[in-house]
Design a protein that fits this description.
147 residues, mainly alpha, Recoverin, domain 1, two-stranded antiparallel sheet, 7 helices, globular, EF-hand domain-containing protein, calcium
Length: 147
């Protein structure tokens, strides 16, 4: 069994160019609340629902995304500017917050992910880009990688 400090040290070894401590904290706390031993849709939602109230706020998502950017450190290309996490979160919310209430529910995330399994794979790999491919060559959908 590994405690949070040990978990942070493990993460630091994988991301030596940045500060992995904040992101490792979020991941550790998510694991702590999920004893099923697998990365599931609910786990992914829980990673971003930092206060466990059943909603992902922009602030919660921005905190996690900022932690990911900090973890990547100097390896981001182009280098991250201070506003990058906020811009990323704005793009995510435009795609997923279907009722535009400023929060993402598990139902909204499920609806988005059900449109494209690559989105779930991207989230489960902790990819901050949330790559989404169109479900059909003739159907296009906004991507987070394009404003």
């Amino acid at each position: 069994m590994v405690d949070e400090d040990g978990f942070k040290k493990i993460f630091a070894q994988f991301f030596p160019l940045g500060d992995a401590s904040k992101y490792a904290h979020y991941v550790f706390n998510t694991f702590k609340h999920n004893h099923q031993g697998q990365i599931s849709f609910e786990w992914i939602f829980g990673l971003y629902d930092v206060n466990h109230d059943g909603f992902i706020s922009k602030k919660e998502m921005e905190d996690v995304v900022r932690a990911i950017y900090e973890m990547l450190g100097r390896s981001t290309n182009p280098p991250m500017d201070e506003a990058a996490p906020r811009h990323h979160v704005d793009k995510v919310f435009r795609l997923i917050d279907s009722n535009n209430d400023g929060t993402i529910t598990i139902e909204e995330l499920a609806a988005f992910i059900s449109q494209d399994e690559t989105a779930l794979q991207s989230l489960s790999m902790m990819d901050t880009v949330l790559y989404t491919r169109p479900p059909h060559p003739l159907i296009t959908r906004p991507s987070l990688s394009n404003p």
